[in-house]
């Protein structure tokens, strides 16, 4: 069996690092990196930290509008898929790489396996929501991380090929030890800082929203560690908001590796993020999580009291901090997502 895996962004690198070794034990995996994380430091640090094998193809699509970036991916993927003629194409999550991989494969009648299927934020203004929906409706096998994701698909009439697999990210989180030196290198003590990440276009491309988040971070009762995404850094400069980064409580970092990030999450007093992956990781680790958005695709985290939707306005974020009440997760290991996905694909060889 030959499987092509399409990746291009942080959460996809993480999931591929968990699944790829098991895939390669029974199949030939061809790894394609679209280059959606066009900043070299962002992609290189994850390949090195996660010990991902180098991609067989790197598309180097770079930064562009959603339509142009997706079109560039499609144009590059089509000849590769025709040459390689895989039995399956695996896509992860909800990025433009997900959409392009699913669409390119479907046009060539190659079956698609969508990992992390069924998530819904119910906000179609988010590009990621469109990507999720299209990928799910194109996929032949849909591996859902939660029961809610299975129910979401059923409401859309998708029941065939759906499997409740659990979340690949949990596997890596649970077995990742601390980076023993990261806190000391940054002069941090456990439980004495907040960790923040901001990168979504809905926040970074709107000056008022971005300034509201930065102002709130500067007024938090904790020191704030902020690994700065290239998009966010560019928009801060474009909007003339650099003064917020000079605040004594905000500690700016370049992008960090996976193990460093998990260590920072694990020992934070709180995590504030607009990232789907980071909110999921922080809640898995039992850290109070403020989601810097008005909705989330991980609805269970809010319903179970593990996370709070804080929005992006200054007053909303500060109000969320004041009223916060969190419930620590009860770990119940039910799923082995690697085993579920691999055995299901093997039955289709």
Automatic annotation (TrEMBL):
Origin superkingdom: Bacteria
Occurrences of domain UDP-N-acetylglucosamine 2-epimerase (ranges): 27-325
GO MF, one annotated term: isomerase activity
InterPro entries: UDP_GlcNAc_Epimerase_2_dom (IPR003331), WecB-like (IPR029767)
Keyword vocabulary terms for this entry: Isomerase
Pfam families assigned: Epimerase_2
Annotated PANTHER family: UDP-N-ACETYLGLUCOSAMINE 2-EPIMERASE
Family stated for the protein in its record: Belongs to the UDP-N-acetylglucosamine 2-epimerase family.
Name listed for the protein in its UniProt record: UDP-N-acetylglucosamine 2-epimerase (Non-hydrolyzing)
Lineage: Bacteria, Bacillati, Bacillota, Clostridia, Eubacteriales
């Amino acid at each position: 069996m030959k499987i092509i895996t399409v990746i291009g962004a942080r959460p996809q690198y993480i999931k591929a690092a968990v699944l790829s070794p098991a895939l390669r034990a029974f199949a030939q995996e061809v790894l394609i990196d679209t280059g959606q994380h066009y900043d070299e430091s962002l992609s290189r640090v994850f390949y090195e930290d996660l010990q991902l094998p180098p991609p067989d193809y790197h598309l180097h699509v770079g930064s562009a509008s959603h339509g142009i970036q997706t079109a560039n991916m499609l144009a590059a993927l089509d000849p590769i898929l025709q040459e390689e003629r895989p039995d399956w194409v695996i896509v992860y999550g909800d990025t433009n790489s997900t959409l392009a991989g699913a669409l390119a494969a479907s046009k060539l009648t190659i079956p698609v396996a969508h990992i992390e299927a069924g998530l819904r934020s119910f906000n179609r203004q988010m590009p990621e929501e469109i990507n999720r929906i299209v990928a799910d409706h194109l996929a032949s096998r849909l591996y859902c991380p939660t029961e809610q994701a299975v129910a979401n698909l059923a409401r859309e009439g998708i029941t065939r090929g759906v499997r409740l697999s659990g979340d690949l990210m949990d596997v890596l989180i649970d077995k990742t030890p601390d980076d023993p030196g990261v806190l000391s290198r940054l002069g941090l003590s456990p439980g004495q800082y907040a960790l923040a990440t901001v990168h979504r276009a809905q926040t970074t491309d709107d000056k008022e929203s971005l300034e509201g988040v930065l102002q709130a971070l500067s007024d938090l009762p904790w020191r704030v560690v902020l690994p700065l995404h290239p998009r966010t850094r560019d928009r801060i400069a474009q909007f003339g908001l650099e003064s917020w980064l000079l605040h004594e409580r905000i500690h700016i970092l370049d992008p960090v590796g996976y193990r460093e990030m998990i260590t920072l999450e694990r020992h934070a007093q709180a995590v504030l993020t607009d990232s789907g992956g980071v909110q999921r990781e922080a809640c898995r680790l039992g850290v109070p999580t403020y989601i810097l958005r008005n909705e989330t695709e991980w609805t269970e985290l809010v319903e179970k009291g593990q996370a709070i939707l804080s929005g992006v306005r200054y007053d909303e974020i500060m109000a969320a901090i004041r009223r916060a009440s969190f419930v620590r997760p009860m770990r119940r290991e039910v799923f082995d997502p690697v085993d579920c996905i691999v055995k299901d694909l093997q039955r289709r060889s």
